[in-house]
Amino acid sequence: MKLWIVAKPNAKENRVETMDSTHFRVWVKARPDKGLANQAILETLAAYLKVPKASVHLLAGRKSKNKIVEIKKEI
Question: How many domains does the chain have?
């Protein structure tokens, strides 16, 4: 399943807002430096969706606020 994310780094708290079934806004405390915000976004999204961290992969948008994330369901 692919999800489209709008990243909001340097936030006061880690949280997720659902815009529709495949579009989310993710706020994280981490700075957008050396991949810290990307990692925090993946962890926050995994916790929100209640899936293992290893199932969440960043497909596109490493240096952009608009990201595409893939959730792989284990069989």
Answer: 1
**Closest CA relative to residue 53, chosen from 68, 38, 31:** 38
- Based on C-alpha coordinates, what's the Rg of the chain? 11
Range of the domain at 29: 2-71
Tens of pLDDT along 14-34? Answer: 999 999 999 999 999 999 989
- Tell me if 69 sits within 8 A of 58, measured CB to CB: yes
Name the helix (H) or strand (E) containing 37: helix 36-49
pTM across the whole model: 0.90
53/42 Cα distance (integer angstroms): 7
- Output the domain CATH number for residue 52: 3.30.1200.10
How far is C-alpha 24 from the geometric centre of its chain's CA atoms? Answer: 8
